[in-house]
Amino acid sequence: MTEPVVLSSELLGFPADARVLVVNCDDFGMRRGINSAVVEAIESGIASSCSLMVPCPGAGEAMRLLRERPGIPFGIHLTLVCEAEREGAWGPVASKERVGSLLDEAGELFSPDRCGELLGRARIEDVEVEFRAQVDAVVGAGLAPTHLDWHCLADGGRDDIFELTLALAGEYGLAVRVWGEAGRQKVPGLPVTDNEFLDSFSLRLDGKAARYAQLLRELPVGLSEWAVHPGLADEESRVVEPRGWRVRQTDHEFLMSAAARELLREEGIFVIDYRGVQERWSAGR
């Protein structure tokens, strides 16, 4: 007889019928307009945490903001891909000679349209060097992340990268963003996202606020996670990211809205961050 699935929300101490949501702002550190929007969405909106991208131009400012605001929970958005359309290339945090298989012909991180090429050539030893460099840069700055997740590569993109990330999380006492039944089987007994994972870049711009409202009303029992991408519609964002800035602006508008806050209250949804998940991961290993 199959054992009943214990929801991750229950592992975190919530009632069996509770609806629990992590609203995590990805891409913190990409640039100033994103940094400002993320902090605002957490401090004054409905967002609960963020994920820091260490190789990006705005990472130094982002880490300063985190030092000034020790109450903001954050993870590390492990980055092997340069997403910005017109911002210039991002280099690795580790020295380039140590991570050659992760770099394109210009010696920079690959663009998203070449993820397949990256995953086909990346040596796991190089991935470990770069991931460690990113984590160590954050820890060395006196900051305490809660979890690890991946930029552009979903669950790491390869099984060995996923397993490497789990090992690093165990070493540093962190959780990992894992979702679904397949993820639950990989980390038995540890809390993962119970329900379908939402990336806000998958939502249509037209009627987005109404769609977000619908998703909150229909949020299932258990632990859910939204990866949102707030950003300001400043001139730099419009130039650097001529397609993506609208996604970020509309995310920011909803996260800051009174309607979103009221919906959470009406629906009785618990919004949490990764600190409780991190505690369970650390205790369960």
TrEMBL record:
Annotated keywords: Carbohydrate metabolism, Hydrolase, Magnesium, Metal-binding
Domain of life according to the entry: Bacteria
Cofactors demanded by this protein: Mg(2+)
One Pfam family in the UniProt entry: YdjC
KW Hydrolase (keyword) present: yes
Coiled coil feature spans: none
InterPro entries according to UniProt: Glyco_hydro/deAcase_b/a-brl, YdjC-like
The protein's name in its UniProt record: Polysaccharide deacetylase family protein
